[in-house]
């Protein structure tokens, strides 16, 4: 596709943006309702968490498939295929009572969502005037991120009122609407002959990621590397991913290109972006779960704890196109992590608190998320030549999306272990009160220790964010300083346009 006019293709934005938003919604809507999913498929809340993690694994893998599928089948067919796959996955998710079939359908939804992330970005930029690319990126990022802010609350509402399966059932007509509007607005053009598909690389990547995900999901239950099963699966993950890295370095048409990691801004900016995103996704999963299991709120109220994130993130993200020109990318990236640190540092959890007590810390968390993507994405791509932007962006998006699984898993593991440690330390000092039933005392102890463990994790997250802010300010390089070595840098052009604006 090439640019055709100086008008904004609003119907394209509506159709393709709806598909992008639905992909994010399918992932986010389950974040606060793991106990409800557990009841629906007869499993534990820990296993119900896999409905999110397996979605994210396939979301990241789907991103790697987009360049080849786009060249082979065209943008319209890829978009229709992704919408159809997500529709089928939603139908299965809405009707199954089996955990493993649910994970398969969630994998289908995740794969579709992954295809739509880079595809929608490419369609938006190619169909809009160059002078409006800043606005277009704001629209694209909000279409992807807003469902993460409102999805948990809507998912909680449906889980409480009509059953969590209605989340998937009601998403079906929206997927069909997105396919109808979007496909009618995508204009196909004949491009160059598509490169060969790296099937061995794809199989190695998928096998390695699935083995790694099995370790992350089951490690705590089996005792990590004290278990032969976890040890063998870990070795399999290392072997498959190492072979994949070797394959990508030697393949003629690799799925991912890792040579960009030699650039400081690329690997360091990507590390910081993954850190911020992983912490955010971890807390977005744990806070609703804590509110439901330890404070006694239902799925709607527990998930509504995340609503202030959207109230803060959306307005700030709209201003990012101007702010990065005024403050500079390096300072803005550092300020983003300072906002994260302030959010984690001001949040104080107590079993006796109301959800309203967390409004401002969660609001600050939303400001941090709203400021996360623009500066770090542009810093990651600084030094990358313009024609290599799609390949560099595909690699960075793949790594960033999968990092969410690591954040969710690690925070959950540390929360569980911290809770057990606190219970062990407090049990000897707890004395039964006259007239207080023992089950009530045990439940109160569980709530108290789980809250204490989560509060300690908030303090740890604050120090990590402060360290990230210092690293961003001291070690990231301004794109203008890279101009001499990256004369054709896309980001350097964006910086000049922002300054002149």
Can you describe this structure?
The chain has 501 residues and is mainly alpha-helical. It folds into 3 domains: 187 residues, Growth Hormone, Chain: A, CATH 1.20.1250.20; 55 residues; 243 residues, Growth Hormone, Chain: A (Up-down Bundle), CATH 1.20.1250. Helix content is 77%, strand content 0%. The two termini are 27 Å apart. The N terminus and C terminus are likely disordered.
Would you summarize the structure shown here?
Its main location: membrane. It contains 19 helices and no strands.
Major sheet description: none
Unreliable stretches: 1-5, 497-501
| Ends distance | 27 Å
Q: What is the N-to-C succession of helices and strands? A: HHHHHHHHHHHHHHHHHHH
| Helix/sheet category | mainly alpha
Question: Strands, helices and their partners?
Answer:
Elements: H1 10-28, H2 34-40, H3 45-48, H4 50-73, H5 75-95, H6 99-127, H7 133-161, H8 165-185, H9 199-222, H10 228-250, H11 264-293, H12 299-303, H13 307-327, H14 329-346, H15 359-370, H16 373-381, H17 389-427, H18 438-475, H19 490-500
Task: Name some characteristics of this structure.
mainly alpha; 77% helix; Growth Hormone, Chain: A; globular; disordered N terminus; 501 residues
């Amino acid at each position: 596709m090439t640019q055709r006019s100086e008008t904004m293709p609003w119907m394209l934005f509506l159709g393709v943006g709806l598909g992008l938003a639905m992909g994010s919604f399918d992932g986010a809507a389950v974040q606060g309702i793991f106990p409800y999913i557990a009841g629906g498929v007869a499993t534990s809340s820990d296993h119900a968490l896999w409905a999110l993690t397996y979605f994210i694994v396939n979301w990241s893998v789907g991103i790697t498939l987009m360049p080849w599928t786009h060249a082979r089948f065209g943008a319209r067919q890829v978009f229709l295929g992704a919408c159809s796959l997500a529709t089928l996955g939603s139908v299965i998710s809405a009707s199954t009572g089996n955990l493993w079939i649910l994970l398969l359908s969630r994998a289908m939804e995740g794969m579709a969502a992954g295809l739509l992330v880079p595809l929608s970005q490419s369609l938006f930029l190619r169909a809009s005037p160059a002078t409006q690319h800043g606005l277009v990126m704001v629209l694209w990022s909000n279409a992807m991120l807003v469902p993460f802010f409102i999805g948990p609350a809507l998912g909680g509402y449906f889980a409480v009122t009509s059953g969590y399966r209605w989340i998937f059932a009601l998403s079906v007509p929206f997927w069909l609407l997105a396919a109808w509007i979007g496909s009618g607005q995508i204009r196909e053009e004949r491009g160059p002959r598509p490169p060969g598909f790296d099937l061995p690389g794809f199989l190695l990547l998928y096998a390695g990621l699935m083995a790694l995900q099995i370790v992350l999901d089951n490690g705590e239950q089996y005792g990590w590397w004290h278990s032969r099963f976890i040890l063998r699966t870990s070795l399999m993950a290392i072997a498959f991913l190492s072979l994949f890295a070797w394959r990508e370095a030697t393949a003629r048409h690799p799925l991912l290109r890792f040579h960009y990691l030699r650039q400081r801004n690329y690997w360091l900016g990507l590390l910081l972006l993954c850190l911020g995103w992983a912490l955010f996704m971890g807390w977005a999963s744990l806070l609703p779960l804590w509110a439901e299991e330890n404070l006694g709120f239902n799925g709607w109220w527990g998930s509504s704890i995340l609503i202030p994130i959207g109230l803060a993130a959306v307005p700030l993200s709209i201003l990012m196109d101007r702010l990065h020109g005024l403050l500079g990318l390096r300072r803005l990236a550092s300020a983003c992590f300072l906002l994260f640190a302030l959010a984690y540092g001001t949040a104080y959890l107590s079993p006796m608190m109301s959800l309203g007590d967390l409004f401002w810390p969660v609001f600050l968390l939303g400001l941090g998320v709203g400021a996360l993507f623009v500066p770090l994405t542009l810093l990651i791509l600084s030094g990358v030549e313009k024609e290599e932007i799609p390949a560099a962006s595909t690699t960075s998006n793949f790594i960033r999306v999968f990092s969410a699984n690591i954040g969710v898993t690690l925070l959950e593991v540390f929360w569980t272990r911290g809770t057990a440690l606190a219970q062990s330390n407090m049990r000897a000092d707890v004395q039964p009160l006259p007239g207080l039933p023992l089950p009530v005392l045990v439940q109160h102890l569980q709530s108290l220790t789980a809250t204490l463990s989560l509060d300690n994790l908030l303090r740890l997250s604050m120090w990590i964010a402060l360290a990230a802010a210092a690293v961003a300010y001291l070690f990231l390089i301004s794109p203008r300083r890279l101009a001499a070595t990256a004369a054709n840098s896309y980001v350097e052009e964006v910086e000049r346009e922002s300054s002149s604006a």
